[in-house]
Structure formats: C-alpha cells, structure tokens
Amino acid sequence: VVLLGLITLLQLPLRGLTQAVVALLIYMGLFVLAVVNFFNIWLIIGFFGLLLFVYLISRDTLFSDPESEEKKQPISKVLLLTTAIVCITSAVFVVGGDYAGNKINSLTNIDYIEVRPSVESTLDITKAVYSENVLFGIGPNRFADAWRLHKNIGINETIFWDTDFTAGIGYIPTLFVTLGALGAVLLLVFHAYFLLLGYRMFLKNSIQDSYWYYFGILSFSGAVFLWGMSYIYVPGASILLLTAVFTGCTFVAYRASTAPVVFTIPLAHNRQRGFVLMATTIVVITMTIGAFFTIGEQYTAQARFAQAQVNATSVEDFEQVAGASYALFPDDRFVSARAQIHLATLNAILNIQEPAEENQQQFITAAEQAGALARQAVSDDPTNPDNHAILAGLYNTLAIAGFEGAQERARESLSIAERLDPLNPAYKLLAAQIAIRADNTDLARAEINAALGLKRNYTQALYLSAQLDIAQSNVESALSTTQAIIALEPNNPTRYFQLGVLLLANEDTTQAIEAFKAAIARDAEYANARYFLALAHVNNNQPNLALEQLEIVQRTNADNQELAALIAQITNGELDIAPNTEV
Fold it and tell me: Of the four listed, 118, 239, 355, 416, which is most buried by Cβ atoms within 10 Å?
C-alpha cells in the first residue's frame, strides 16, 4: 500500500481531496508496518522512499532536459511531505527497530511474533533433499516431511523441538525443496523473464498513454515487490493471489504498449478442427469449474474444523464437525482428531477401578471406532508420523486391557513413526512406556537414554527415568548419578527438576524445594518445575507459596481443569498432602 500509494501520487494528476485520501492510506500502511515491525520491509520501503525523495528534490536539475519544451507539472507538496515521512519512519525502525517496536506495542497493546526456519536451516534441508532427489525434490506440500527427516538436532533443545514447520525461510525457497532443481530453475527463469519484460516495457518501449504507463508501473512494481518478498517470507493465500493478479496485469500493460499480434484459426473450412477446439474449450471450462468447487469445499472443511477446535462446546459437537469436514474434503487431520477423542475415552474407561458391563461395552465400541479412524488416517497420509503414533497409542491401550498381540502391533506402528520422524524423542519415550508396561525395564531405560540423546532437556523422559528408579528402589543411586550429571551440566534446569523429583520420593522436601528453585532460576518459564515446587510446598505445609507457583503456571495453562481443581482445593484448605502426579 505504501509503495503503490507513492507511485499513485507521483504518476497521477490528483486533486486535493483525492491526494489526501491516498496519503491517508499510506499513513495507515505505515502504522500497520510499525505494529508488525518487519525489518526487511522497512529496508525496501526506506530505500524506495529515499530514492523517490532524491528524485523529487533534484528533478528540475539532474533529471531535466534543457532541450525539451514539455511543461512539467509542479511537485505536489502532499507527495513531498508524505515521501519525507516515509523516509523518516523507515529510518527510525531500521536503526532502532526493537526499541521503536516495543514502544508501539506498549501503546497499542498488540503483541506480534512469528517463528520461521532460518536461512541456514532451509539451505541445510535443501541440500539434504537434493542429495536424495535433486530433480524433483521431496514432493509438493511435503516440506514438513523434509523438516522432520533433516532438521538440525540442535532444534530439539529449543521450545520448537516438536514443531513441524510446513515452510522454510520463504515461499520460493520452500518450493526449491518441494519441487527440486527442475522447479527451482523454472521459477528463476520465469522471474528473470518477468524482469526483462519490465525493462522492455519501461526503458525500451515508450508507452504513450500516461494512464497505461501508470497501470503498467503500478502492476509491475506490485508484482516485483511481492515476488521478491516471497524469497524471504511465506505469504498467505490471499497475498499469493494478489501476486498473480499484479503479474497478469503487467502482461496486459505490456501487450498494450506493443504492436498486437493476432493469431487466426479458420474453423469454417475445417469441421474437425472446429470440433476439437470446441471440445477442448468445454473440457477446460468444466475442469476449471470443478477445481473451483473442490477448492471451495476444502476451504470450507478446514474453516469449520478450525472454528470447532476453538468454539466447540462438547466433544460430541467437535467430532460431528470433524466428520462433516472429512465428508467435504478427505484430510487425515480430521479423522486423526476423531481417533484421539475415542482414544481418550478408552483411557478414561481403563482408569475406572471396577468397570460395569456398560463401561465394557463402551470400551469395545470406542476401540472399534478409534481403530477404524486411526487406520483411515494412516491410509490417507502414510507419511505423517503422528497418524502412526496414534495407532501405536491405541494398540498400547489395548495391550494394557489384555488384548493379545496388541503389544507387537504397537511396536510396529511406533517403529514406522520413528522412521518417518527419526529426530523426535517423543516416540522413544512412548516406546519406553510400552516397555515398562511389558515389564522390560532394561529396554525402557535404553529407550529413555535414546530420547535423552536426542533431547538432553527432555523433562518427560527425565521424570519417567526418576519414576523408574523410584519403582525399583534405586533412589539413592539415582540421586548420586543425577548430582554427578549436574556437576557436568550446572546450567541444565531439567537435571535440577529430575533431582527434585528424586528428593521428593526420598521424603527430603526441603532439598527438593531448593532443587526446583534452582531449575526455575535457570528457566523462569519452566512450568513443570513450578508445578512440582508447588506440590513440595503443600507437603511442607506452605499453601500460600504453593498457590503463588500454581497461579504462575495457570497463566500459560488456563484451560487445564485439573490445575484449576488443585488450586481450588488448596485455597479451601482441602489438601494437606500433594497427590502423586504424572507429567
């Protein structure tokens, strides 16, 4: 909006009110940019604004033709002032972007953050994919698969360890990964041709009509800006459509500036040619309409599903929407979500101490539905490891219930998930849990160690290891081992968490509190450590300190009903001893 607004003020002979409206749009665009505070856009806007400002103040000297008798229009004061404001604003955010952005965010109460893979990560994934299939890449819309297979293992030490990024640093680099070298070359050739077309249109071919010239430079500038940004950013579908519109309009303007080329296909003297052309036209129109219907159904299904995830008032309502969405468009996410619902029902029934006959029938029904849905999800997208993990979780639940052969099937599904996502420690942890239920502690410890090898600060794995030590009465040995590891890793908060859990099991509440505090001192956002610190305070008869920690945890876990119930119990004085809990 800022770029096209400046071009409009420069090219069109606008009057007072119209100029004010265009300038207002530019100022509104600057405000949105200030809120988002995207450094790369500030560079582009600042460079273009400075270039235009220098042109305006030196037009009558450096860019004037003494022999030309054409009378030039005076420079608009609105354009000059607006260009100066754009330059100054861009300079402020380029030089002091963080400070200025924080000030804007504090005034507007708007927080904006976006996380994408870095340039280095995208290049590493591209190299890895090209080493396997340089010509065609990993396949359309499969960047997430490439990320799971080839991401830097150092990502596992961050909070994004379990995030499957669907795009790289930019839209075009993502296409380089998914379409291979062939797609990359074709895209680069197209963009080079598009720049050449702009050169021919504005520098070689003189457009006589000023309005066609304005239309051409407006559409070409918009297309170049959006295509350029797609190399360093991933725009949404609406921006990509706008890019296509600007690109098409540029071709229209170019055709208007050149001699028309007319192709004549005589149909009257050749019936066969006319029939083929008519049939081809009908097929193209039919396919286009069908594609629009398919895209519309896909958009409707995804929109309904996303809305239900936020606004559904009950599990039954959400499952109904997910089923309706799948009927519109067969996306594996819809059926996998339904499978997880039935799997949660199975686990809830399994926790009933003395299930009635009605509960047993519900268990069988939920198991059948969960199995059918999980297998359907795997069939729809066999490359998604989450689908195999859900199926493994289902078989594991059935194994706990005593179904013969379920344990082996759980391991088979889990092994497929690990092969598709080899750097994710969550599958190793699930394998350890399956091994514990099968009374194979040696295998469980091996899987836990493998999970910690992929992610050293994996809280769930450390907690499971501590629970295993407690169950085997190895608390003293585990304490010595953990303290030795802390001496080697003094800044690893998860090790202090593990130490605190072991100290709690050893009934050393005072030292456990100190261990959890040490974990929080090294990671103030460590919710698990704060939660267990609260439990230790409860055991130490310090309910006020426990509530203080739980309220901090609740800020980032507002929907956790168990947490809310625990806070209510402590507030009402109904809890003197903290319950045993799972992470």
Answer: 416
The structure tokens listed for 144 are: 């997430």
Q: What is the DSSP string of 345-357?
A: HHHHHHT-SS--H
CB atoms near residue 9 (< 10 Å): 21
Angle at 466 between CA 460 and CA 469, to 5 degrees: 145
In 3D, which of 495, 581, 493, 482 has the Cα closest to residue 536?
Answer: 581
User: What is the C-alpha separation between 116 and 110, in angstroms, rounded?
Assistant: 20
- Quick: pLDDT tens for 371-401: 999 999 999 999 999 999 999 999 989 988 8
Q: Which residues contact 105 (CB under 8 A, 6 or more apart)?
A: 35, 111, 112
Contact 392, 414 (CB under 8 A): yes
Q: Do 213 and 11 meet the contact criterion of CB atoms below 8 Å apart?
A: yes
- Gyration radius (Cα) of the chain, Å: 31
Cα end-to-end span (Å), the chain: 49
Q: 10 Å Cβ neighbour count for 298?
A: 15
Could you report the per-residue pLDDT of 522-567, keeping only the tens digit for each? 999 899 999 999 999 988 888 899 899 999 998 888 777 788 888 8
Contact call for residues 173 and 126 (beta carbons, < 8 A):
yes
In whole angstroms, what is the distance from residue 331 CA to residue 434 CA? 29
**Structure tokens given for 10:** 């420069």
User: Look-up: residue for tokens 């909006």?
Assistant: 1
Residue 205 DSSP code: S
Backbone angles phi, psi at 184, to 5 degrees: -65, -45
The DSSP 8-state label assigned to residue 209 in this structure reads -
pLDDT tens digits, residue range 108-142? 777 777 888 999 999 999 999 999 999 999 999 99
Which residue has tokens 């003189």?
A: 206
Spell out the residues 6+ positions from residue 456 whose beta carbon is closer than 8 angstroms to its own: 157, 489, 492, 494
Q: At what angle do helices 210-229 and 39-58 cross, to 10 degrees?
A: 150
Sort residue 418 into left (φ over 0), alpha (ψ -120 to 50) or beta: alpha
Q: Is the pLDDT of residue 571 over 80?
A: yes
* Cβ atoms < 10 Å from Cβ of 58: 11
Q: CA 144, CA 166: separation in Å to the nearest integer?
A: 5
Whole-angstrom Cα distance, residue 161 to residue 474? Answer: 31
Separation of alpha carbons 126 and 172, rounded Å: 12
Please give the DSSP secondary-structure letter assigned to residue 578.
P
* Confidence grade of residue 513 (pLDDT, cut at 50, 70, 90): very high
Residue 410, SS3 per DSSP: helix
Helix (H, G, I), strand (E, B) or coil at 557: coil
pTM, 2 dp: 0.81
Give which of 18, 22, 20 is closest to 3, Cα–Cα: 22
Inter-CA distances, 429 with 143, 441, 528, Å: 25, 13, 17
DSSP class of 200 = I
195 close to 187: Cβ distance less than 8 angstroms = no
